Amino acid sequence: MAKKFEVNSLSEYVNFVSRNNLNNFISRGENKKFDGIIASAFRYQTPIKFQNMILQFYNTIGNDVTNMQRENFVAFSQHHGIPTNLIDFSLSPLVSLFFACYDTDTNSDKSGYVYFINKSRLISINEMVNSFTLGDNLFQKLMQFNLSIAPIIAKLYTYEHTHTQEVQKIIIDWTSKLKVDLIRKRKYKNLFQIINQFRKESKLKTEYTLHSFSQDFDTKYTYSEKILEQLIKSNQDYNKQYSNFSLYDEEIANCYKLIEVALVDRQYVYDKDILLMLLLMRTVFEELFDYRYTRDLIKTFDLPFYFSYSPPNILSRIENQSSLFVYQLYYDYDLIDPYIEETEHRMIQNISPDYILKVNCKEEILDALDSVGINLKFIYSDYDNIAKYIKSKSLGL
What we know:
By secondary structure, this protein is α/β, with parallel strands linked by helices. The protein has 2 domains: about 1-135 and about 305-395, no CATH class; about 165-300, no CATH class. It is built from 18 helices and 11 strands. The protein has helices spanning about 10-20, 50-60, 65-70, 75-80, 95-100, 125-130, 140-145, 150-160, 165-175, 180-185, 190-205, 225-235, 250-260, 275-290, 315-320, 360-370, 375-380, 385-395; strands spanning about 5, 25-30, 85-90, 110-120, 120-125, 300, 305-310, 325, 330-335, 345-350, 355-360. Strands 1-11-4-2 form a 4-stranded mixed sheet. A 4-stranded mixed sheet has the order 3-8-7-5. A 3-stranded mixed sheet has the order 6-10-9. Helix 8 crosses helix 9, helix 12 packs parallel to helix 14 (about 275-290) and helix 13 (about 250-260) crosses helix 14. It is globular and about 80 Å long.
């Protein structure tokens, strides 16, 4: 749950950032209250094929861009108004404050908002961006256990070893998602029993983890191993009357192979939590979008971490805005069902900030920011915005 505060001046804001050590956070400013932090590609009532727009943009201007812009073309497209799954954040709290206050709509909200996310929740995908093709979906590849995604697995292991409790919570919470209806409650009933057993024992022993052993198991299984075994068994023993999805041996083998490739020559203590998390997420996605039961075109999901991407200086504004993108995860389904008119369904990751700061007195704060050089001219540094800034200052607009 995000912590919420209000400020009324630049000095209050600076003191708040300093007092809460928010320089160790990324931030995003929005000049009005929206339903959530959502990438531009996901702000439509039905899923759009935004990848086609990026490709069309590239086919039109591709010969005129630099190699660096070509290698980071999704970010380049984002800055030119093409919908993408990237969300603009900044490493500078002052830049985010500017965006929370700057507004060309005189009838807009009187307050803006700055959202802060702890950097410890970020998993960088910088080194993978150049290997993407324009139509690539990183999360789709991850859920298909594609070997090209191995570098991400290694980073997930690093995250898991420093955020053990968060990963355990993912596994427990995502297991509960399989209770979507009576059919799946039957299919995964033994899995739910193991999770409930872990919850009971962990309440009695606060140091209990998924790596702990239970005396109730016939052999010395950890909870992680037992849950993984039961997840796979539930799918292998499934009957068509229970659901339309099963994890197949080939998929399970691919997931093991992905982990093996990711951890080669790395000094990690091998555990099955990440393997369990991936197989469980894949199972939940497929079960939630079993076309016989869903009519929802868009669903959301939660994860405690976010994939981040720091673009090089492909445009001057990148450096001035201290830009960083959150790569909002999504998972697409193309379903063929005569009873559903639209056939593309999409799962989208929720973006949940650690702090939400309501910013009042926007005009006064903009004047104060201008006095320290944070203004339209600095933020964008293109000819049109420099001219707009000069005109505004000269005419007192």
